[in-house]
Amino acid sequence: MISSGIEIYPLISFILFFTFFILMLVFVFRQDKKHIQEMSNLPFEGDKNPLQ
Amino acid sequence: MELEKFYYDNRIVRNFSIAAIVFAIVAFLVGLWIALELRYPSLNGPYSWLTFGRLRALHTNAAIFAFVGNAMFAGVYYSLQRLLKTRMASDLLSNIHFWGWQLIIVAAAITLPLGYSTSKEYAELEWPIDIAIALIWVIFGVNMIWTILKRRERHLYVAIWFYLATWITVAVLHIFNSIELPVTFWKSYSVYSGVQDALVQWWYGHNAVAFFLTTPILGLMYYFVPKAANRPVFSYRLSIIHFWALIFIYIWAGPHHLLYTALPDWAQSLGVVFSIMLIFPSWGGMINGLLTLRGAWDRVRDSAVLKFFVVALTAYGMSTLEGPLLSTKTLNSIAHYTDWIPAHVHVGTLGWNGFMAFAIFYYMFPKIYNTKLYSEKLANAHFWIGTLGILFWALPMYFAGFTQSLMWKEFNPDGTLVYGNFLETVIELLPLYLMRAIGGALYLIGALLFVYNIIKTATSGKLVAQEEAEAAPLVGEYKKHKGEHWHRIIERKPIQLAIWSTIVILIGGAIEIIPTIFVESNIPKISSVKPYTPLELEGRDLYIREGCNACHSQMIRPFRSETARYGEYSKAGEFVYDHPFLWGSKRTGPDLHRIGGKYPNSWHYNHMWAPESMSPGSIMPKYPWMFSLEGNDGSLDISATQKKLQAMQTLGVPYTDEEIANWESTLNKQAEKIAADLNKDPNIDVEPNEEIIALIAYLQRLGTDIKNEPTSN
Asked: What's the per-residue H, E or C state across B539-552?
């Protein structure tokens, strides 16, 4: 692959991927607990007999 | 705050459910039929519309878009309303969506057996139907987003992100892969050719699995599994990671369908790396689902719904482990083109999609009919028969794939192939094909029990078309508190969520596809490769009409076992005039890329009339309708030939205006020459205007151009 700078594409994609992933993990684990709990209970809101 | 009273629309949920169930049975029946055809090839009789090549597309489209599609819509309309505490925004849009989608399915069910096909897998429908799909998809999106905007619940539960991402990505995929130039009302050519077309197609094809068969079903899983288990999802954090990681990574993995092909190496490597990374989010999701059930384990024993969920999630885990493994070059070189791949796919569709759908319907029907499931026992019987069906389907096919691959690659000490005749490797598989059909039949029987159970359930209750609910309205602007987490903002703001998801999925697509399309040096030109003659082009369209590519590849990989069997391996530059590409993905029959010149014309003539006459024991269908024999009119339709050439010229195929103007005499001359050659055989009496002549012209041209390459290069 001597031509056209194609080899840069895999490199770009790796850098993108890792930044994306690390950022996502950092943010997700900084979420507060109470909010997470509220979110996971959403499907049960408004039930006539909510979680026993 | 005062509560508002409103009504959930259960009628639309019921309608989509019924459509899903009806088309499930159709998809399974067609599947069973074509499975039997592979064992008993004469089943289709003299009917073109019953052949494997045409019905295979009907089967896949029915399973994906009619069965899973309608099931997805039913589940989405049910859960979306409840998660957002509001009715769907517009009954009119819901109904247009419903009827529009069913009309598209009916159009598919008519056109595919008639041979109107683009040949691109899971995107076979012709351009007018493609446009209809785009319109109806937009209606669905508008209805969903409008409902989200009208909601009474501030935060968007993770299921809804999956729905949104599905909607966006499927729209992008469908539009880019369907860019085609119409020639007539039922005929178009892909604007991409050869390698580029292959890349776009498998970027689409792979992500149709990802974003039609996976992400929406995961959204449903995050709603229905907690509901059925009556406990919240195991880890909401994990579900967020699952979401972002999955949509980001999935979109890159398409090239794993094209390993060892003429696709540039860097694109293949990207596909491999991202495919392997896919294991992590997928397994995260599976574990999240299974662990949600952990406290309900005791109920799994009696509850059919929970059982279906457990096996569905396990099947999801299995296929998402197997997929990445199959994307490694080693395993891919063994499994690709063999029955291993249908086995892999069916664990996904029958296990993951099918069982998810059954579980959701068993859960939902009693709810919307305000009654109990008619028979838990019957549902359990369905579960066991269905599971057995999956095993009977998949195990023989794994075995078949492995066996055949080994036979293809086995050499004698003197360097010749042990099974030089491809057919020997097919006949070995016939008992396994029969077992597979039995597996499919079991699965179908299970589904019929399901239908009975659902009908009995529905008739024992009454549809609660308008289900009353209450919730407080969302009033005023939500005050953002200081230091609020970014993700909470996204959870509140659907538009932002949508935009971010779009960016995330476009990155992967763009990096893969843009260079392949715009960087010329990716596809080394071969000067001796010339456009097809008018007759060959018509022959090629017959090949597309009959779906020969459902059984034949046109892509010889650079392995000794393949070059020994088929000849020189395939080069990217050989396909530059192929709109669409016809590489195929499964070798039920041998590769045809170098078939040109391998046999005399008369061999093909006899073989297409009755394959068994040339290849005893062959499972290839007969194609008598291409011949003007025994009262049949097999004459070639040349009413659009000129338009086809012009369309190709528009797409960049270097036909001169003169060549196009003289198409008819060129075509006739070539047809007469082939007919004259055939008629030398005392047993053959053929007219130049028969379809078989065009097909032979095309087959004899295939892969021959590089033989005219000047040797000094």
From this structure: HHHHHHHHCHHHCC
Find out whether B319 and B347 touch, Cβ atoms under 8 Å. Answer: yes
- Alpha-carbon gap, residue B67 to B442, rounded angstroms: 18
Q: Is A20's Cβ below 8 Å from some Cβ in B?
A: yes
Those of residues 129-158 in B touching chain A at CB distance below 8 A are 153, 155, 157-158
Q: Which residues, in sequence order, are CB contacts of B91 under 8 Å at separation 6+?
A: B9, B12
Q: Is residue B523 part of a domain?
A: no
Task: Write the CATH number for B163.
Answer: 1.20.210.10
Report ipTM for this prediction: 0.79
How much of chain B, in percent, has pLDDT values that exceed 70? 96
Of B270, B470, B521, the CB nearest to A3: B521
- Nearest alpha carbon to residue B140 among B105, B104, B178, B90: B90
- B511 → closest Cβ in A4, A9, A31: A9
Residue B447: band (very low, low, confident or very high) from pLDDT cuts 50, 70, 90: very high
Which CATH number does the domain housing residue B557 bear? 1.10.760.10
- What does the alpha-carbon distance between residue B252 and residue B206 come to, in Å, rounded to a whole number? 9
Q: Do A39 and B158 touch (CB under 8 A)?
A: yes
Helix ranges restricted to H, B293-429 = 297-300, 304-326, 329-335, 340-346, 355-368, 376-409, 422-427
| Cβ separation B266–A7 shorter than 8 A | yes
Residue B387 lies in a domain: yes
Q: What is the DSSP string of B187-232?
A: EEEESS-HHHHHHHHHHHHHHHHHHTTTHHHHHHHHHHHHHHHTS-
Q: What is the pLDDT of residue B476?
A: 61
- pTM here is 0.94
> Is A2 at the interface with chain B, CB within 8 A?
no
Q: Which of B74, B95, B90 is nearest to B147 (CA)?
A: B90
Same domain, B455 and B561: no
Closest CA to B590 of B615, B572, B609, B613: B615
The whole domain housing B401 covers: 4-473+486-513
Cβ atoms of residues B556 and B422 within 8 Å: no
What is the DSSP code (8-state) at residue B184? E
For chain A, report the end-to-end CA distance as a whole number of angstroms.
Answer: 63
Q: What is the pLDDT of residues B500-515, one digit of tens each?
A: 888 888 887 787 777 7
